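Figure S4 source data
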Amino acid sequence: MAQFKDTDYLAISASVRMLENSLLTAEQYEQLIAAKSDDEEAKLLQSFGYGQLEPKHPEAIDADLMAVRADALDELAAAMPTPGDLDVFKIKYDYHNVKVLLKAEAMNVSPGEMLIGLGRASDKEMYLAHQERDGSNLPGHIDDAAREGYDILAATRDPQLCDIAVDRWYFIDLLETAEATGSEFLLGYVRLQIDAANLRTLVRTMRMGKNADFLRGVVFDGGTVSTDELLRVSAGGGSGLAELYAPTLLAAAGAAGVQAVSGGQLTDFERECDDALSAYLESARLIPFGEEPVLAYLAARETEFINLRIILMGRMAGVPADTIRSRLRAVYV
């Protein structure tokens, strides 16, 4: 892969700095939460640049947010000197589609609108490869994941085991893709994602009463926190969990994980995990140009989509305003 200098990103970095001004603020989120009606909420969304989101039609919210995601990815990819850097944000959709196709076949139903066309491979390419049992032309390890997942479902009919296998290939692909870019910033972001995924798995398995032997089969390699240390904490019933993550950006998430293991709210713990990723990206604000501010902006926009969904779906379900506020991810401003 050709190596690019940070100065190759001068133009797009300047554009991203302008785009950052359009990111929603905490005050704007509060206006949406406090809106007295769907009409008021719709007017606010329109003034914030999200006129396509319609609170009166919640069934379309996910599809509308996906369309906005696609526009954001396409806009940045067209201006990036190395569009492959954005693959780190596309890969998750590839493996989401693998899971959808495998489970739809197992249940003898159509994958329909559950497929998401935001990955490196289009949803049509994924569907055709699945039908023909040949994904050798697909990028990364998609074919490996699909084949292993299919074999597991055929042998066990256990969708959880299938998901674990697919997720393992996902993180392998994610790590290899980040390494290929030569970006230490991007590689650090991916390693933090793996650390967060392993912390989530550690907490959830302990809440379920699973032992360290079970954990060994469901954690992923490639993070900065060793799997041996995770197994030690699991074997000790959670002892040392907070201390293990204290030197990392997941320190607050580790402390919240201790509470979650003891029966605390998983929503608080999940929010802290996501906020740790946002905190990592905050460092990009100090970098004038390069791939860092571009990738940080895209991740910040992704957090914005998550927060909008939390607000819109929460209001639709009648969730109290304070509960909605507590679930919002940290705002990148």
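Figure S5 source data
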Amino acid sequence: MNKIDGFTCIQMSKELEVNEFVSFHYFEYPKDFFFPGEKHDFWEFLYVDRGDVYVSCDGKPKTLLTQGQIIFHKPNEFHTVECDKVVSPSLVVISFVCNSPCMSFFENKILRITNHSRFLLSLVMDETRRIFSTNLANPFYRELDFANPVPFSAQTLVRNYFECFLLDIITSNNPQGEGIKAISKTTELETTRERFLEAQEYMLLHISDNLSLDEICHDCSMSKANIQNVFRKETQMSVIEYYNSRKIDEAKKRIREGKGTMTTIAYSLGYNSIHYFSRQFHKFAGMSPVEYSRSIKSVLADKGAQYRN
């Protein structure tokens, strides 16, 4: 221990340290997607944000992962992913290098993460979208490209949030306690995110309706100014703009699952005009509904060609 001006300095131990990141992905898979498998000399986890998927490790029988569950693949563990041909899932996949001994906790486990762990993971993904110009939904990229410029603090935040995410999973799944305390929460940030998630849940329950701002405020017991402030902080969108974006997310999911024509999908989500639906789709997805459908089919074709060659 060092001494400075008569004060004793202590050095904190670090139980977990992530050395490098390899990839960050947020996938929206077609319902019949199949990944025949790979292995690599670094850690990778798969978290099911929405839907269900089947995974298999080292040739073992496939296991169903449901929404909210996470599986870690240790270095050089062969793993596959397969959709159930019914539900179109959304998955977070992050690959990284970590040599800390406590990573052995994650071996051969499927875990359901807590709301706080999910909150930390959402912070990780928010920051990565600021750091990289790479399309994180592209399943084929081999290298992450930094944005220009990289926002100040973003890289440090990704690493710190991610290490907290891993530690939070360990501590929240430690039945004996062993003297480990849960990671403290950032109160203001957590409160804002909780209010946002509450409003988001209400929107998803009424995704086929045409909610007004008054209705959302009433259900969430928030003033218009307060809820708009929360959504600006969380999404850089207004409340109604975000609600419309989630409608398009649901439309994309139904397209991937083949649930109806473009017209029936539009009407099932509360759109009275197919032309307005197409304009909204292009606004949030950057392409028309038909172009999106074609892009999903090309993902399957390209993946199949990749593994046939």
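Residues 207 and 250 are 8 Å apart (CA to CA). The chain is about 45% helix and 20% strand.
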